[in-house]
Amino acid sequence: MVVPSLKLQDLIEEIRGAKTQAQEREVIQKECAHIRASFRDGDPLHRHRQLAKLLYVHMLGYPAHFGQMECLKLIASPRFTDKRVGYLGAMLLLDERQDAHLLITNSIKNDLSQGIQAVQGLALCTLSTMGSAEMCRDLATEVEKLLLQPSSYVRKKAVLTAVHMIRKVPELSNIFLPPCAQLLHERHHGILLGTITLITELCERSPAALKHFRKVVPQLVKILRTLVTTGYSTEHSISGVSDPFLQVRILHLLRILGRNHEESSETMNDLLAQVATNTDTSRNAGSAVLFETVLTIMDIRSAPGLRVLAINILGRFLLNNDKNIRYVALTSLLRMVQSDHSAVQRHRPTVVECLREPDASLSRRALELSLALVNSSNVRAMTQELQSFLESCPPDLRADCASGILLAAERFAPTKRWHIDTILRVLTTAGIYVQDDAVANLTQLIGGAQELHAYSVRRLYSALAEDISQQPLVQVAAWCIGEYGDLLLEGSCEETEPLQVEEEEVLALLEKVLQSHMSQPATRGYALTALMKLSTRLRGDSNRIRQVVSIYGSCLDVELQQRAVEYNTLFQKYDHMRAAILEKMPLVERGGSQVDGEAKESKEAQLSETALVSTEPQASKLLDLLDLLDGTSGDAQPPPPLDPSQGGALVHLLDLPGAPPPPPSIPNLRVFEREGLQLNLSFVRPSGTPALLLIMVTATNTSGADVTHFICQAAVPKSFQLQLQAPSGDTLPAQGGLPVTQLLRVLNPNKAPLRLKLRLTYNHFGQSVQEIFEVNNLPVETWQ
């Protein structure tokens, strides 16, 4: 006899009435015991009620796995009330990890073949929710038949089930290609939306489907034009926009079909312009359609005027009151600034205004875009705006802002004086946030600008006198005062305000830096060295400097103590050499863009003159240049005259006298090829360490689809040592795009034959692929 139990409504009330967790568990345990007893007794009339209660318990997070088999019994029942609860239980309690889900395949197949729409809908919903790859393969034909059923209710659910099947088993795409073309003629928006989603999935996973559906671009254009031009419809309009969900889906599909295809892009250009100009942006629905339109315009081969229109739409988004829309606009403009720099530049004032947004994510995006907009024509104005932002920006943005300003000044500085002033202002405002190389870069810049030595030392002295808390600024100022202290004490500089400085004031300022608790050990080292150099640049007595240096001879900091001891020794034993040792540093040629550009131009001119002497084809010249890396040509002794046509002779310009000949080159090796993905190995053995082998792994993709999430792992026998460097990326673009390279360093001290085991994991054509293979045919030169 079945033990009486609570009804579902009474169970819910009792659980909600429990005052503690323990009371709730007690109620649930007692009711689960009743449910188990009912299942054991096999009561068919009340099985669906018991399972309904169990599903509620499952939703609260308690175990309910013992109801899985009851779901199968209810699904096989001829009663609709049983099937409804059974299918709901299957969706909640079953998944691919449990073998029980395969047992309902026949039941779903039988229900799909029935003519009852409600039962077919339940079966399709369950299949699209938890259908595994095996179930999809078995039931694909049944779903295909339902795609053309008269009932719109069944067709809509069948389309969504087909989307799930394609995601699970991409090779089923050929089954669903023919029905899609007919479903595009549907007037039911739900079916049309599902069909567009299905076609999108097919195109993303199958190059053949992508080529097939490019024929329906005119039909998609017609559907979207009808949506844009139709009047207000209560059933489909949202905020005055006709079915924005369907519009967004069609635009997304058009973007996929028009990518890298001139004819399709030309077909949709007029429509995209119409959507961009006629869509209302006062509501979120219109903004969503416009944003998808912008993405489509920028991704296909659209006309230049249309691209400008798309960027102007993003510019209008920057004026929207919604923060999310402004963030999306900033992110999109940042992605487009490289390809359409001049069009994005027109919205520079609006972007700069976004720097003052109180929202941290918006101001960070605006900062990244502002830095990307800096060029040689606007560097002065943009740097001024960025420096103004640096003074008031949140602390978490100061490091990025300071680094960006310094990098922009390095690339586009109009004059050296402006460059120095910009760096000084950044160091004064946010010195503690700059990177470590900022000090070295500024000292190098000042050292190479002889005409600005007096100007720089006066500016830095004034800044140091005002604030000694910014450590990078203090370090640069101490270095500059030590190098050019004599210029500081001379008469006024024409480029600065008159500044009268006494020797005692300079020494007192450096002593203040040494004694300050804010000074880091490196900063004290700069100040101590500056005092030592001033001992040869000041006209007064150097006893005060000698006393300060001797004090730090017993400093706890080892580095500072060593400097002080060496400087004391210089005073005591080598005083006659002090002036020569501490003389000014020679002028330094900077590695910046201005000097490097001139040097690069002159070197390129020399190389071009040399290249004109040779009459070999251009390809052979390139090979000669590549051979320089391996040193495959050339003799042990360089010939007296330099023959430009012999690439190997250039190598010996860098060789020391009597250097051994370079090692022979090692042939490259192709180790993997599948569906357009190729993996090649190239080898180099450095002459200084013969036990070391450098293996460059180069992956290329000539297929029609991108290879994503590419990972290459390697293993060697225990007698070897292997080090994998970071790869250059994890995405291989289609049609022979940029390759991915990774360096392997193999140490072979025993010179044993090398064996290499590789594992490749990647996504290609919508599938996850893993390949493990062993390379045993490595050239003998790699280990002998």
TrEMBL record:
It is a peripheral membrane protein. Its main location: membrane. Pfam families: Adaptin_N, Alpha_adaptinC2. Keywords: Cytoplasmic vesicle, Golgi apparatus, Membrane, Protein transport, Transport. GO terms for cellular component: AP-1 adaptor complex. InterPro entries: Adaptor_Complx_Large_Subunit, AP1_complex_gsu, ARM-like, ARM-type_fold, Clathrin/coatomer_adapt-like_N, Clathrin_a/b/g-adaptin_app_Ig, Clathrin_app_Ig-like_sf, GAE_dom. Belongs to the adaptor complexes large subunit family. This is AP-1 complex subunit gamma. It comes from Lynx pardinus (Iberian lynx).
